[in-house]
Target: RNA polymerase sigma-70 factor, ECF subfamily
Amino acid sequence: MLAAFDGDTSAYRALLAELARYLGPWFARRLGPAHASHAEDLVQETLLAVHTRRMTYDRSRPFTAWLHAIAHHKYVDHVRRTAIRPTVHLEDDAPVFAADDSANAADRRDVDAVLATVSDRTADLIRQTRIEGASVAEAAARHGISETAAKVSIHRGIKSLMGRFGGDK
Model:
C-alpha cells in the first residue's frame, strides 16, 4: 500500500490481487456454506471501497486493521441488506389488523340467544350454512352425519325458530 501511495501502479495492482485472494475465504468463513456465493460480491465491494477511500489510510497505522474495518463494515451492510424482514402486503392484512365488529356485536348476541333455543348440533348447522356460507355437504361432513340428516335438522330448527320468534309470518 505504501508503494502504491508513492505512485507504483504495479505494486497497487499486486496489492489488489493479493487482497482479493485473502478476502474471498475471509468472507466465505463469515457467510457460511449457505451464503458463500455472496463472498465474491463482498470482495468486489471491499476492493472498491479500498480504492475509493485509500486516501483515508494513515501510513503510521497497520494496514490490516484498516482493511479489516472496511471488510467488516461491508459484511455488516450485507447482513443488514439480506436480513429477513417480515412484510405484509396490504391485501393480506386481515390477520394483522382487527376488523371493527363493534356495530355487529348486538346482532351476534341476538343470533346467539336465538340459536341457544335449539340443540347445539342444529344451531351449529344453521350457523354454518345460513350465516357462514358453508354448503350443507360441508356442514354435514363436519358433524359426521349425512346430508339428508343435516337438511332435516336445519329445516326443523328453522321451523322451530320461526314458530317461537316469527309468529304466523
Residues 9-31 form the longest helix (23 residues). The chain has a mean pLDDT of 86. Helices lie at 2-5, 9-31, 39-52, 63-82, 105-115, 120-131, 136-143, 147-166. The radius of gyration is 36 Å.
